[in-house]
């Protein structure tokens, strides 16, 4: 009978060790899932706010070194990048928004900001076949550009080499959607 009790004791200890190991692995999984979400969010931010992210990385975040050799040689100073990133979020004064075009990525206009047509193209590359109203929402979300329907459609129709739309449905059952050529 003594050997059976010894065997039961070993089994209980083994069960306890396995439960502890499972708990340890569950904590690791939670930690890795949290890290994965953070990395996915960082990638999302890099896609939408490249200038601001580049400036943050240049300031020397521990463990994340930014290779300045691969960055653009015409990268703006920290102040200019922070100003542009706040403009992209819509924090600039009303008259400054008219004169300056915000630009996290893409081609630049003569004053260093991203051209409106390039903003439209960037959004449509990421989300093809958007209606004008959907495109307005996406442009405001991604670039902080609050535009009206007539302003946007003027850009779309005056650049037929860059943008294409579905055929208009006169019955009004199917909305016109836009894409990049």
Portion of residues in helices? 55-70%
- The ordered string of helix (H) and strand (E) elements is HHHHHHHEE
Number of helices: 7
Major β-sheet, in short? 2 strands, antiparallel
Shape: elongated
Could you give the count of β-strands? 2
Can you list the strand order of the major beta sheet? 1-2
Which quaternary structure do these chains form?
Answer: single chain
Distance between the termini: 83 Å
Radius of gyration: 26 Å
Uncertain stretches of 5 or more adjacent residues: 68-79, 91-106
Q: Helix/strand/pairing class, anyone?
A: mainly alpha
Q: How much of the residues is beta strand, in percent?
A: under 5%
- Give the mean pLDDT: 75
In words, what does this structure look like?
This protein has 7 helices and 2 strands, in the order αααααααββ. The protein has 181 residues and is mainly α. The chain has helices at 2-48, 50-58, 78-88, 94-99, 116-126, 132-143, 149-157, and strands spanning 163-165, 178-180. Helices cover 58% and strands 3% of the residues. It is elongated.
């Amino acid at each position: 009978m003594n050997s059976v009790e010894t065997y039961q004791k070993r089994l209980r200890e083994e069960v306890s060790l396995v439960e502890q190991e499972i708990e340890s692995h569950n904590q690791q999984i939670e930690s890795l899932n949290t890290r994965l979400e953070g990395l996915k969010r960082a990638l999302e931010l890099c896609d939408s706010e490249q200038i601001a992210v580049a400036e943050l990385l240049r300031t020397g975040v521990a463990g994340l070194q930014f290779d300045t050799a691969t960055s653009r040689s015409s990268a703006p100073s920290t102040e200019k990048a922070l100003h542009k990133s706040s403009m992209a979020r819509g924090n600039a004064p009303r008259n400054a928004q008219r004169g300056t075009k915000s630009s996290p990525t893409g081609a630049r206009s003569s004053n260093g900001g991203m051209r409106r047509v390039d903003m439209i193209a960037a959004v449509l590359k990421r989300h093809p076949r958007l209606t004008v109203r959907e495109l307005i929402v996406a442009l405001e979300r991604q670039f902080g550009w609050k535009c009206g329907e007539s302003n946007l459609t003027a850009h779309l129709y005056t650049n037929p080499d860059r943008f294409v739309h579905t055929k208009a449905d006169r019955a009004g059952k199917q909305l016109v959607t836009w894409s990049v050529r």
